[in-house]
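hi support,

uploading two proteins for the ticket. first:
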Amino acid sequence: MRKLAAALLGCLLLTGCAASWQAGEVRYKIVSFDDSTPTELFRLELVGEAPKGALDPSDLTRLSNLKSDVSGGADVGDEVLCLVEQEKGSAFGNSNVVTHMRTCRKA
């Protein structure tokens, strides 16, 4: 029984350092369009402050998103609302914060 308890405690410690964060919608402005490669990208800049609770607020200031992932016919100069997630791995794996931008729509 003690071995089982120790094993469970060890598992909790290993996974306890992992974290994730998801924002409802974050407002960005499309500042440029990159079509130099077959993958067409919008370059986005955060409008206002980073949402509270973000694991790495500085990582939210400038992001890129596929043009095809932005709905509503957005173009350079428009503002979009995007679903954003951040994940941080455990101390024993990749402990860097990774930011994922999901879907965006014209504001």
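and the second one:
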Amino acid sequence: MDTSFIALAVFALAVAVLSSFDRRTKPLERRLARLDQKVDLLMAHLGIEEPADPRMAEVDALLAQEKKIAAIKVYREVTGAGLVEAKEAVERRMR
């Protein structure tokens, strides 16, 4: 009886901590997205282009070899993107 109560208490505490963390990160993610957009607008206004990472050629070479999963993995390493974002970006590069 005591161990199940302790396990339930630990689970409830973990859920509370995780939900608190999510509430704090959402506003920061939105603010970061706005800052990214502003930096992109400034760079476009000044005519500055971000230099292409040389490893993106590796992504293209993997796509030419029809190694989509490996290309997604390299894309994630280069950009730090999440799995879904990387998959969508690699699929756009395939077109």
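thanks. also noticed: The mean pLDDT is 87.
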